[in-house]
């Protein structure tokens, strides 16, 4: 029997063209999706009700897509730092995969989830910046510093895309 891997969806609410999910599937045919309704995001002052409604609709569609391919999407509610490791442990998952996120809150949360998984002896794998063509820090000046002027940044970025 194949080892179970959880794939934690956040902004990447899709099955197709998802680098992290593809990596999880390469490692094991038994992959279950997880989405956590994170109060740190849902209850933030700057989150509009329309955004939440749209997100929930996308999660429902994602759940249908998982069912169509013979798998499932678990929807959790609560702090991901607690919910993701607890769910992985309860289900006996060998690993949790996810795609990296650039937002400061997301990076802090992801680091805390990774630490909690490590503490439980569960492997974690983060894939490339699935939503970006180049990772932060790939497009730097000749001196190795971030650009402060857009024009030179744009030209350098275009050269990397070629």
From TrEMBL:
Q: Which Pfam families match?
A: DNA_photolyase (PF00875)
Q: Looking at the record's lineage, which domain of life comes first?
A: Bacteria
Q: Which Gene3D superfamilies match?
A: HUPs (3.40.50.620)
Report keywords, A-Z: Lyase
GO molecular function annotation: deoxyribodipyrimidine photo-lyase activity; DNA binding; FAD binding
What processes does the entry annotate via GO biological process terms? Answer: response to light stimulus
- The segment(s) forming the Photolyase/cryptochrome alpha/beta domain are 3-132
Segments crossing the lipid bilayer: none
Q: What is this protein called?
A: Deoxyribodipyrimidine photolyase
Q: What is the lineage of its organism?
A: Bacteria, Bacillati, Cyanobacteriota, Adonisia, Adonisia turfae
């Amino acid at each position: 029997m194949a080892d179970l891997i959880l794939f934690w969806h956040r902004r990447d609410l899709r099955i197709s063209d998802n680098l992290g999910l593809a990596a999880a599937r390469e490692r094991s045919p038994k992959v279950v999706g997880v989405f956590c309704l994170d109060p740190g995001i849902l209850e933030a002052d700057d989150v509009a009700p329309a955004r939440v409604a749209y997100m929930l609709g996308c999660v429902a569609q994602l759940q249908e897509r998982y069912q169509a391919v013979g798998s499932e999407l678990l929807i959790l509610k609560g702090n991901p730092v607690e919910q993701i490791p607890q769910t992985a442990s309860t289900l006996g998952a060998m690993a949790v995969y996810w795609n990296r996120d650039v937002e400061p809150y997301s990076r802090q949360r992801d680091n805390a989830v990774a630490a909690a998984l490590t503490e439980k002896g569960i492997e974690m794998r983060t894939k490339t910046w699935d939503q970006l063509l180049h990772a932060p820090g790939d497009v730097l000046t000749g001196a190795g510093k971030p650009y402060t002027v857009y024009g030179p940044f744009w030209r350098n970025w275009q050269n990397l895309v070629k």
